[in-house]
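Audit log entry. Action: structure prediction of a protein-small molecule complex. Ligand: magnesium ion. The ligand was supplied as SMILES and no pocket hint was given, so placement is left entirely to the predictor. Protonation state taken as written. Sequence taken verbatim from the request; no trimming, no tag removal. Recorded inputs:
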Amino acid sequence: MNAWRRWKNRLMLALLAALAAVTVMPLLAITFYLISQGASALDLAFFIEAQKPVGELGGGMGHSIVGSLLLVGSGALVGIPLGLACGIYLAEYGDRERLAPWVRSALELLASTPSILIGVFVYVLVVVPMKGFSLGAGALSLALILLPLVARTSEELLKLIPSHLREAGLALGIPRWKVVLGVVLRSARPAILASLILAVARIAGETAPLVFTAFGNPNFSHSMGGPISALPLQIYTYAISPFDEWHRMAWAGALLLVGAVLVLNLVTRIAGGSHDRGSSD
Amino acid sequence: MIAAVVTDQEGTDGRTPVELETRRLEAYFGAHRALHGISLAARKNELLALIGPSGCGKSTFIRCLNRLHEETPGATTRGEVLLEGEPIYGKGVDPVQIRRRIGMVFQRPNPFPTLSIYENVASGLMLAGTRRRSLLDPVVEKSLRQAALWDEVKDQLDRPGTRLSGGQQQRLCIARALAVNPPVLLMDEPTSALDPVSTARIEELLVELKRSVTVVMVTHNMQQAARVSDQTAFFLMGEMVESGATDQLFTNPRDSRTEQYITGRFG
Ligand SMILES: Nc1ncnc2c1ncn2[C@@H]1O[C@H](COP(=O)(O)OP(=O)(O)OP(=O)(O)O)[C@@H](O)[C@H]1O
Ligand SMILES: [Mg+2]
């Protein structure tokens, strides 16, 4: 009886381990392939130079790194506060506000819109009237992707904070908004920060909406009103070219992107882990 | 429906004026009625004890007194609650202003998990805008001393409040309520998790507080009610069976159900 149980236990464990291996395998394969193809192109020039005209040797993705940082940074600057505001509104005032179900539906609709459609939407709304592709339009499209993502996760995380803490604050005669900011948000802060990093990592790889908005640019640029390069866009440009050197650079760009997202994930993992240990009682 | 208890106004029997009063108060959770028309008064500088078996509505009742009941989704009230004669459920009354005047200690300790012991005690003042340590320090020390917790935590005020034991957390929450100095204090079984020594010190605190504060306290401990309260009300299944002077209610109850409960025959 006991031996059979132990045997069954081992069998199940082996099965689960095999399934886990199957899940991890593609990730490992992609990473190793990226390293083998792209690592050789990761030199100093790759990080500081822009695209060279066709026929010239060298060049890099410095302009795309700067572009991605600017696009993701300004997208986050708009999308995160708006998303947080929506999340707080829905979690803390959702059951007493008549507007809340509409806000929630709108966010769900936005979340389920394919990102390429968001690009087209911003193209019609911003690019056409402004007569040009721009960093601003690209950042706006990323913000629109970020907004429902942040709103939904922060709403969920705020709802996990037990209501007796809100009541403790309210019973002290503190206005609701101060209880929300000073007690509830503060309690959920580590988890929300982690979710924000993941959300930002998610938009860092967005390509489709940028095609219609930021467009891409072979040179360095930081103007809000002008087209700008981004890592995913430049990877595409290099990848579809007929030159081996550019292909290598595309692989290196992909490696950089995957690596950056991986690092962001690990950071939240480590920060989240230390937080869990810190707050357990 | 129970007839409204006639409450004396000041002077007729030498007692202090009514500070907090309910009139035919009903409380609902959705369609479920948890309180069936309670009329009860707490007088200034007196301690009103609420006793009754588990689930009879004591917590629900005191949560109606500072408008916390309505924080539960679907929960509503009917009837009146008067604070110094003014209806707290009146139109345009801001619950925040009411709660400034009516402090509360909850049945289950609920310190703020992200705040230190010090910040927990000072939280009412800090969230209201007071930041200066020179103003907060004396209040924190006084409140913790009153709550019989100072000696145990004075060297670790920066530790998280949730790292304390259950009974210490309960006293921390008492200190937090005292720190904002409200004229009325609602206490839901404030000593349920405490050892006899701490319980005795909280009871001393209650007697001392009565000089300046009106207290409504829920307790399952009959001796405690007899020791510290002036008035006692007995609740049963959402109704108030009987209320009156504590010594009278315990020695000579009017209702047979009260007598059965206090002699331990049911509940
Ligand atoms: N959040 C809630 N939703 C629905 N019903 C509730 C809720 N809280 C309490 N009740 C009901 O209201 C009634 C009174 O509960 P209450 O907590 O006031 O009892 P109590 O007298 O404080 O009991 P105890 O001595 O165990 O604390 C109970 O029947 C309970 O089931
Ligand atoms: Mg209770």
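Audit: result stored. The interface with chain B takes residues 95, 163-176, 178-179, 182-183, 186-187, 189, 279, 281 of chain A (CB under 8 Å). DSSP finds eleven helices and no strands in chain A.
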